[in-house]
Amino acid sequence: MNTTAGIVAGLLVAGAAVTLVRFARRKANEFRAAIDELRGAASESGEVLDFERDPATGVYRRRA
Known about the structure:
mainly alpha
């Protein structure tokens, strides 16, 4: 009986792990989609930011 209970418990743990991985993947995909949506809404103007590094100070400034 102990062997059977161990096998059943192992299968339950494996099933729970698969369920958690699928849930995490689904939430991660939803999160990525939300970020992509925000990025798409923010970049509608099409303006490209162009910066160059000032060698003296190491600070990035808009390219003139």
